[in-house]
Amino acid sequence: xxxxxxxxxxxxxxxxxxxxxxxxxxxxxxxxxxxxxxxxxxxxxxxxxxxxxxxxxxxxxxxxxxxxxxxxxxxxxxxxxxxxxxxxxxxxxxxxxxxxxxxxxxxxxxxxxxxxxxxxxxxxxxxxxxxxxxxxxxxxxxxxxxxxxxxxxxxxxxxxxxxxxxxxxxxxxxxxxxxxxxxxxxxxxxxxxxxxxxxxxxxxxxxxxxxxxxxxxxxxxxxxxxxxxxxxxxxxxxxxxxxxxxxxxxxxxxxxxxxxxxxxxxxxxxxxxxxxxxxxxxxxxxxxxxxxxxxxxxxxxxxxxxxxx
Length: 309
Hints:
Blueprint: E1 5-11, H1 18-24, E2 35-41, H2 48-55, E3 59-62, H3 69-83, E4 87-90, H4 102-112, E5 116-120, H5 131-148, E6 160-163, H6 164-169, H7 179-188, E7 193-197, H8 214-262, H9 269-308
Parallel strand pairs: 1-2, 1-4, 2-3, 5-7
Antiparallel strand pairs: 4-6, 5-6
């Protein structure tokens, strides 16, 4: 039996572009059975809901108030699984992605058993993307590669495909954006992640409704990355920080001992104080890492228990 596909579209005040997105989604695809479209409005104040229904969306839901892209994505994709999707493709409502390229996202899942497929917008080649956003995306992607070891060129892409098992495994905490958090969780849950090049068109009209400020986006995304990494690699991260503090403290201790032995023990007590404070902070940070690691192990055991029930 062919797997069913639901294309999810989080939308916030996108009545102008949403119909074009819905109508351009392929009605039939090789290797896929039923294809449906699910639109989830994030508290839109325009006619997004009416536009979605008129354009032929199979399922339309809405948040009573604006709660952010990440929560809207999570609700939309979890609802898609609940409805019966075997594969979920998520796309944006602003018509910057080419929906005819959905087969490119599906191929690694259907033929290679991938759990998640990321659409690479090839950001470095985009002339229509503002420089601040372009280099912010490139920095974010480099950070994700460095932290997870997963080689992805475009960690901020919203054009992706997931298996229902991948969606069910995600526990999203951010309310801002899901793109980095899902990659980090997928990497640490040992899911198979692929990436394929996709087209990213110039946006017409006003800027992004869901991400209004580049710098605000970078700040919030950075906080999400740090929080998610600490959830899965707290011991490694906190141990590195703790050892660094201890090392600096030891250097101050050596400085104190040097002057103590060569200067008849007078002065430089501040070095001893700094050393004591830094070594104490370093030790406490390492202990926090141990505790956080034990909590992470317990969470994994609970996740495994829930998944087997």
